[in-house]
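Progress note, sequence design subtask.
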C-alpha cells in the first residue's frame, strides 16, 4: 500500500509512471475500496510519454489505488508537444489551468480527446 503525500514513481501498465501531484492516503484508501467493489471508476488518466517514463497529468489518487490492486489503468495520451507547449502544461497548478492550457493547443492533432477528458474531470469531478 502506498502511504505518501509527495510525488510518486509507480509501475502502471508496465511503464514507469511519475505522478507530479502528491496524494492523500485517506483518499487513496476510499478510492481503493471502491475499486475493489466495482473496478476502475470513471474517466481515463491523462498521460504524457516522455520516452523512458510517462507522466500522469491527472488521477494521482486513482493511480495509486489501481497500483495497490494491480489493476490496468485506462489512459488517454497527450500528443507529442514541443518544449514550449510542455513547459506550459508543467506550469499548470490544477485541472482548470490544465484545461485552459490544453484548449490553447486544440489545433494539435489528437488533442481533442484529451481536452474532452479533462473537461469532464473539471466539470463533473
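Output:
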Amino acid at each position: 500500500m502506498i502511504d505518501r503525500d509527495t510525488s510518486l514513481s509507480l509501475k502502471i501498465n508496465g511503464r514507469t509512471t511519475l505522478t507530479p501531484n502528491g496524494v492523500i492516503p485517506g483518499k487513496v484508501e476510499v478510492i481503493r475500496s471502491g475499486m475493489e467493489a466495482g473496478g476502475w471508476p470513471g474517466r481515463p488518466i491523462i498521460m504524457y510519454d516522455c520516452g523512458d517514463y510517462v507522466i500522469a497529468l491527472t488521477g494521482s489518487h486513482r493511480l495509486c489505488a489501481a497500483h495497490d490492486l494491480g489493476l490496468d489503468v485506462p489512459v488517454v495520451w497527450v500528443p507529442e508537444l514541443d518544449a514550449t507547449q510542455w513547459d506550459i502544461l508543467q506550469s499548470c497548478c490544477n485541472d482548470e489551468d490544465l484545461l485552459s492550457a490544453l484548449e490553447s493547443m486544440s489545433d494539435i492533432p489528437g488533442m481533442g480527446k484529451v481536452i474532452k477528458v479533462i473537461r469532464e474531470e473539471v466539470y463533473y469531478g
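The chain has two domains: 1-77, 80-125. Work on this subtask will continue into the next period as scheduled.
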